[in-house]
């Protein structure tokens, strides 16, 4: 895992609160572009707590869900694009989603959603064109804000590295980030005029507790049957027995592997124990074997390996790597956890217990949390 992912996973709401570092010493236009590419709307609009805050009807929730379905496949794979292409893609997807939502929400609901989006930007909302205009932020104020942001970003980057190096605990990182936030907010108050300070309230509305936001990732992709074969209990199946959409109400653990990969093999006992311990509670474990070596491209060898490895759950032999591409996967092994509504909630790249990391324990705890959630 990258250090930025580590800090976001330890404190997932940092992403929602707008604390993902944007490069310092950037131009005014670059700062606008960077803020426009933050996926806060894509993240929050899928969560139940936001639906309640907007007072969506059941019909509206269904319509929002359909709108999400249009953008999620592209948004999910955009995470592996180069930064510039990713930024362009996210801005386009946000525009598409906003176009759909304007036809679904009432005027009051739309106003509230805009307020929530500005809250999600946190202090960085002063980079938004409509905020600059509404508060009449001057050209002399903007570089002073950017200097504050640069200082906070440097602190976050340092904490990311320390967390990655295990020099500090997640709790210590959270405390330091909270201090950095506090200092940044105080610095901004010193820059704002009293009139500007009074104008912030209408832009953000009443404070929303983002701690209640659980779903911030896309819905899991559907399994691709083209160029793939399902295997169950060491037997090749002639049809596609499982669709992701049929697993609503279940918690799903999907893992990409290659049977000759030693790092994958070290995760096998975890998957088997999850299936043995938690299947009766509503967990479905599914393996996707995407080949890397010539042996891993053989249906016979892959099927035989599922028997040797003792897999009692379904395995999808992804011979043409279509599922790999659809999921935007980048390495073996990778494990994804999907909640009862079909949304990705967490993933882990590599061996879960690499060099003493208690990854399996953390993932198992996440599974239990998802199992305990209401449908």
UniProtKB/TrEMBL annotation:
Pfam families given in the database record: AhpC-TSA
Domain Thioredoxin intervals: 214-372
InterPro entries in alphabetical order: AhpC/TSA, Thioredoxin-like_sf, Thioredoxin_domain, Thioredoxin_ResA/DsbE_sf
Gene3D superfamilies given in the database record: Glutaredoxin
GO molecular function, a single term: oxidoreductase activity
Protein name per UniProt: Thiol-disulfide oxidoreductase ResA
């Amino acid at each position: 895992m990258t250090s930025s992912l580590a800090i976001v996973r330890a404190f997932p709401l940092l992403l929602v609160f707008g604390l993902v570092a944007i490069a310092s010493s950037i131009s005014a236009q670059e700062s606008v572009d960077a803020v426009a590419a933050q996926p806060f709307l894509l993240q929050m609009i899928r969560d139940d707590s936001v639906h309640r805050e907007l007072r969506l009807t059941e019909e509206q929730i269904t319509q929002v869900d359909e709108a999400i379905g249009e953008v999620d496949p592209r948004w999910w794979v955009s995470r592996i694009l180069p930064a510039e292409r990713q930024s362009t893609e996210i801005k386009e997807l946000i525009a598409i989603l906003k176009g759909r939502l304007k036809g679904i929400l009432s005027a009051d609901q739309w106003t509230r959603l805009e307020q929530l989006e500005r809250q999600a930007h946190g202090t960085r909302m002063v980079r938004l064109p409509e905020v600059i205009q509404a508060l009449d932020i001057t050209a002399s104020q903007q570089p002073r804000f950017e200097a504050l942001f640069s200082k906070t970003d440097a602190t976050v980057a340092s904490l990311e590295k320390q967390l990655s190096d295990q020099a500090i605990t997640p709790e210590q990182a959270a405390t330091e980030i909270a201090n950095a936030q506090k200092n940044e907010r105080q610095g901004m108050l010193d820059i704002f005029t009293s009139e500007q300070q009074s104008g912030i309230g209408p832009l953000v509305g009443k404070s929303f507790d983002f701690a209640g936001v659980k779903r911030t990732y896309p819905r899991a992709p559907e399994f691709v049957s083209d160029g793939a074969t399902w295997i169950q209990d060491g037997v090749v199946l002639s049809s596609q027995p499982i669709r992701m959409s049929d697993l609503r109400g279940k918690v799903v653990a999907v893992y990409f592997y290659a049977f000759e990969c030693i790092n994958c093999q070290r995760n096998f006992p975890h998957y088997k124990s999850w299936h043995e311990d938690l299947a009766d509670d509503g967990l479905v474990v599914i393996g996707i074997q995407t080949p890397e070596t010539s042996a891993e491209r053989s249906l016979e060898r892959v099927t035989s390996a599922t028997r040797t490895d003792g897999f009692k759950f379904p395995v999808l032999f992804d011979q043409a790597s279509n599922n790999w591409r659809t999921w935007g996967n980048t390495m073996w092994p990778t494990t994804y956890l999907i909640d009862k509504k079909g949304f990705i909630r967490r993933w882990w790249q590599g061996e879960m217990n690499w060099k003493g990391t208690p990854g399996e324990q953390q993932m198992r705890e996440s599974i239990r949390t998802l199992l305990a959630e209401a449908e």
